Amino acid sequence: MIIVVKPGASRDQVEKILGTLEQFHLKAHVSEGAERLIIGVIGDKSRLPPGALELLPAVEKLVPIMESYKLASRAFRPEGTAFEVKGVRIGGTELTMMAGPCAVESEEQVDSVARVITSCGARFLRGGAYKPRTTPYSFQGLEKEGLRILRTVADRYNLLVISEITSENDIDYASDYIDIIQIGARNAQNFRLLSAVGKSGIPVMLKRGIAETIDEWLGSVEYIMSEGNYKIIMCERGIRTFETSTRSTLDISAVPVLKSKTHLPVIVDPSHASGKAQYVRPLSLAAIAAGADGLIIEVHPNPICALSDAAQQITPDEYRVIADEVKAIAEIIKRTYPQ
Amino acid sequence: MIIVVKPGASRDQVEKILGTLEQFHLKAHVSEGAERLIIGVIGDKSRLPPGALELLPAVEKLVPIMESYKLASRAFRPEGTAFEVKGVRIGGTELTMMAGPCAVESEEQVDSVARVITSCGARFLRGGAYKPRTTPYSFQGLEKEGLRILRTVADRYNLLVISEITSENDIDYASDYIDIIQIGARNAQNFRLLSAVGKSGIPVMLKRGIAETIDEWLGSVEYIMSEGNYKIIMCERGIRTFETSTRSTLDISAVPVLKSKTHLPVIVDPSHASGKAQYVRPLSLAAIAAGADGLIIEVHPNPICALSDAAQQITPDEYRVIADEVKAIAEIIKRTYPQ
Amino acid sequence: MIIVVKPGASRDQVEKILGTLEQFHLKAHVSEGAERLIIGVIGDKSRLPPGALELLPAVEKLVPIMESYKLASRAFRPEGTAFEVKGVRIGGTELTMMAGPCAVESEEQVDSVARVITSCGARFLRGGAYKPRTTPYSFQGLEKEGLRILRTVADRYNLLVISEITSENDIDYASDYIDIIQIGARNAQNFRLLSAVGKSGIPVMLKRGIAETIDEWLGSVEYIMSEGNYKIIMCERGIRTFETSTRSTLDISAVPVLKSKTHLPVIVDPSHASGKAQYVRPLSLAAIAAGADGLIIEVHPNPICALSDAAQQITPDEYRVIADEVKAIAEIIKRTYPQ
Amino acid sequence: MIIVVKPGASRDQVEKILGTLEQFHLKAHVSEGAERLIIGVIGDKSRLPPGALELLPAVEKLVPIMESYKLASRAFRPEGTAFEVKGVRIGGTELTMMAGPCAVESEEQVDSVARVITSCGARFLRGGAYKPRTTPYSFQGLEKEGLRILRTVADRYNLLVISEITSENDIDYASDYIDIIQIGARNAQNFRLLSAVGKSGIPVMLKRGIAETIDEWLGSVEYIMSEGNYKIIMCERGIRTFETSTRSTLDISAVPVLKSKTHLPVIVDPSHASGKAQYVRPLSLAAIAAGADGLIIEVHPNPICALSDAAQQITPDEYRVIADEVKAIAEIIKRTYPQ
Q1: pLDDT score recorded for residue C262
Q2: CA-closest candidate to residue B212, choices B197, B200, B194
Q3: Which residues of B touch C8 (CB under 8 A)?
């Protein structure tokens, strides 16, 4: 950390800064610029009461040098993270395709989607059993019955299951049915849930909070990793901006930014980002072209009758077209598309 | 809800829209404008699969007429909501002052703040026992011991306790110590927690999510109210914008907007909004002048040694100055300042 | 336009609304929903004083049905716009590649870039002669000498010139040197400049304002088109959000959204959007995969010595790699790459 | 400026950084932290090609120490700026009230407003003659005739005129009619206009761009000041955020932030910020309570018939109420209300 001292600060005021650092067992490295005095702080900054230095009258600003996350940082694993979930590899050169309905409604519904996506290379079946909805009057999901359906259908097609959990109290039960736990955008900074998922050791896909900076998102990852669970996928699903033509604004730049900041695999969710079926194809292709490690796409056999978010779900036929184009782009940028 | 039909839609396509409405037992009211065909939809829209109509090719857009919240709406209680917590009135003409340290650190710390704020009219003691922090390496709060300290000190000064809960699993325990449960910005859409707090019947202060629109915030309120708990305070604490001079951007307009949209009391948190002690005074005065029903302010006997968010905590002496000015402004706008 | 009437509005208040409409020669179409009275307004709404209806006490809200732009709307030219600039076609299936240095510094500098981009299919040479800079102390461009250099080099390689104009007073002079006038993000709502450029009849590339919604952007386009100039390219260059890892957030969804809202060609600027050379490649590929009609990329023979925005300029060698990958993706999505 | 070196950078890479600094005649001050090597850069950074250092492979990030504005900085005039416009003082302890219709429509309209505001202490008459409108089909203002009306009415009541200019070409003409030139939000970074206004020497009120950070806004101020014109008022008029209940989000914190960053007077425009007449009163009081040096408010004798922005204009009677309350709050915070 670097302390920029206000112009015109008195000698006493500077001494007060240095004394405060000493009090917390930190070393100071003073250097005089043309227009400002700069103090470099060396040592374990976590000893320092957060915000304390800002209160000293001679402090103009503090400049952090290190990120606040460590395990999530690229420097922790420069070669990148790839891992296996029940024999299916995620990360590395491999692309990962996840698809399924927004909400689980019935076994028939899930089966008809699972059949198609399996034939197009997807290895993960998604589907919401616990649905966080903006209003309490909307369909909240089939809950346990939903998980049972997902598992049954997934086993039939040799797929793995990814589904959202919204409370630490559901982890035990869900772990019998789910291969990857999804943490949704609304719980992206529910640190109690993140810690619990970290302790569970179950692979996690952590969606970005709707207004989370990339650095804060890596802070959320750190909550999971610091419990010893390193099997984490980060999922970009759009951020909130002033633009309302799409539900969220897909932050496509987050893909290469994450590739430079962290070692973890990055997946893009074009369905939630746009909220409109017609934009799922262009955003899917863009995500892969930008270097994403995979996609999670909402597919429904009959979107018009879906119990949730009909507008953003595509049909199995539309999924086939996207899968073919993704495969072709994968070749150009030297990625492996799942067989 | 109103359906705007695309220009050039065929007769068949319009029939398809009308047929879909009929299928879900909704009535249609067609009207032909100069440039667009408009279909008014009458009946219980919750029968309609969400998003389904957007998928019909002739639909240009849907326009909601009603808000998605009901109990939180001003129309539900046009006269406004005022309620008592253990004999202390919140809402109406009364201003409510809440103050205390960011995090509970020790009984001495809390006591020295409580003594001063009591003498200036505050009736609620705040203090964090469970601290959600952006990184797992920061101080996470004294937890149960923190609650015990708050209760002890509050009882000594005849204050009531408001403190944050971050998991549904803590409600039972906390209810022995807390008079108002605070739900923080990061859990603003943790619907499981909102429902659980609703069921508990304990008064709640619900902070705005960092990127929550006012309408979404009222949707979160609805989760609590729909469980039968109507003792809710809404707390504006700043929203995320592109501006970084302050930690968040205090949405001062939210105060009068909420006054027109809902019947619930509105409190402003200038400490978290700005993140800087030097801005707490101007923002406190602005909030009261704008019509807020009260303030929640972070006060620490010795901010520079605080274990969390030192930069935004003011001293007891600074609090006194603000309280006096708030009192004077209260008179001008015909509000009652607590004795 | 639709007027939603407040619940509980009196008969007199509703009559007042109807009377106001009549006063401005508009027809009303009243329909009674389950919970709200709705008034459809038919006729030329431009006669109505803007904002007047909102002031009537019984009006809950107004819902616009039509967009405020007409000529820019897809409905105006459903088949899409393609046009020629001195024999070079823009729009349609053709991809357009524009490249060149951020700022024109010298003839040698521009020449060395022009040579390479020409060999990779670019037909437009870009380069800033008038540079709008956030601080008055930065390099402001070579101005007239810059335009002369651009023209000289472009003619040598049979390229066309695109360059930014920042004042209506420069149009006459610039028209001797420039084939496409670029309007930058900071002047995106400088309506005087837009009208002047519209009157000039010179083809225009209009960048999106940093916080302009897509609908407002189309309103800016309308200023140009309403003067009779229809040769317009829209350029997405990133919007301002809370995320700071990139200079702006490239709104990749704007590409398909514009394809559905307007008939005009859409080009993406990955250099300004990200502000970092290392992200130009992934964002370029993403833009083309998402359906953009072309790219404008900053290339500098020796970025480290550039007089402006060195960080976002790539080398000619890096440009070659991108051009090859763009060409390969173009084939997959059935676009024509320039020979 | 400080250069943070990447962990694991080779000795050669560090030498390359140092060599680059030397090449541009800058001194380096290297210091080794626990986890990072830090290089302080001393000397005239404007010699350095902007962005050049970021391109060196060993550079992790650059940290600016100094702001990019100088004349606008508080340090330039720690005592604050107050100045006179034709005998009327702006800044210091004095509050400045500006009011008038959104757009000038007729002499009668302006007169009826001017009479009332004069009697309530306003010394400046505002009114739009050149109206920048989002669509070319809206009323664009009376232009020259509008300026003539403003001047005539202002002289009648001994008021001064503030009005918006949208092109450098209008300055000469307007200077015969206007006492303070207003630069609107859409031209906040129209640097050509800013420089021209700077050269004119006429007092300027510079509105904040809709997505301008406070630091960028001070950069715009610097454009005017660097031409020698120091009579500048900064006007906070709301920023663009995701919230749509109000047209913009009034950044009330900008008032105290500006007070600490710059010496210039700060005025708040509650009318444009909210876009709704009903919110003008609470936001006006909040602005004064937060420390603003004044208000600019839209007042119309008959808002419902206004030719522009009817929804945000209040009546002269409503203005009287606000003026009285502002006066009372002014006393509390020791400000002088104009007689």
Answers
A1: 97
A2: B194
A3: 75
Contacts of B168 in chain A (CB under 8 A): 167, 169
Q: Of B4-8, B159-163, D32-36, where does the model show the most confidence?
A: B159-163
D195 touches chain C (CB under 8 A): yes
Q: Give the number of other Cβ atoms within 10 Å of residue B202's Cβ.
A: 18
Task: Tell how strand C83-85 and strand C59-63 pair up.
Answer: unpaired
* CB-based contact D168 C166, cutoff 8 Å: no
Tell me the percentage of chain C whose pLDDT exceeds 70: 100
D204-207/C37-42 β-pairing:
unpaired
User: Chains with 3 or more CB pairs closer than 8 angstroms to C?
Assistant: A, B, D
Nearest to B49 among A52, A68, A304 (CB): A304
Q: Name the amino acid, one letter, at A278.
A: Q
B63 reaches C (C-beta below 8 A): yes
- Per-residue pLDDT tens for A242-300? 999 999 999 999 999 999 999 999 999 999 999 999 999 999 999 999 999 999 999 99
CATH 3.30.70.1140 residue ranges in chain C? Answer: 2-63
Q: Which residues of chain A are in CATH 3.20.20.70 domains?
A: 74-332
Higher pLDDT: A87 or D52? It is: A87
Of C36-45, C74-83, D73-82, D169-178, which range is least confident?
C36-45
d(CA A257, CA D61): 14
For residue D38, give both structure tokens: 């830090």
The interaxial angle of helices C214-225 and C191-200, nearest 10 deg, is: 40
Q: Inform me whether the pLDDT recorded for A178 exceeds 90.
A: yes
Q: B167 CA to chain A: closest CA distance, Å?
A: 7
Rg (CA), chain C: 23
State residue B321's pLDDT score. 96
**How near does any CA of chain C get to the CA of B254, in Å?**
18
Contact with chain D for residue A260, Cβ under 8 A: no
List CB contacts (< 8 A) between A43 and chain D.
Answer: 34
Given its phi and psi angles, is residue C158 left (phi above 0), alpha (psi -120 to 50 degrees) or beta?
Answer: left
Determine contact: D332 vs chain B, CB below 8 A. yes
Size of interface B-D (CB pairs under 8 A): 119
pLDDT in tens, C52-64: 788 888 888 888 7
Its CATH architecture, for the domain C74-332, is Alpha-Beta Barrel (3.20)
Its ipTM equals: 0.92
Q: Does A224 touch chain B (CB under 8 A)?
A: no
- CATH for the stretch B2-63: 3.30.70.1140
Taking an 8 Å cut-off on Cβ atoms, the answer to whether A51 and B195 are in contact is: no
Residue C73 pLDDT:
93
User: Which residues sit opposite A131 in a β-bridge?
Assistant: none
- On the question of pLDDT at D252 being above 90, the answer is yes
By the CB < 8 Å criterion, does C315 face chain D?
no
- When scoring D1, D38, D79 by the number of chain A Cβ atoms within 10 A, the one with the most, hence best to mutate, is D38
Which of B310-319, C62-71, D162-171, D176-185 shows the lowest mean pLDDT across its residues? C62-71
CB neighbours of D98 closer than 8 A, spacing ≥ 6? Answer: D122, D123, D124, D125, D126, D162, D267, D294, D295, D296, D297
The residue-averaged pLDDT of D319-337 equals 96
Q: Judge contact between D253 and B273, C-beta under 8 A.
A: yes
In order of C14, C15, C27, C36, the CA distances from C30 in angstroms are 10, 11, 10, 11
DSSP code of residue A77: -
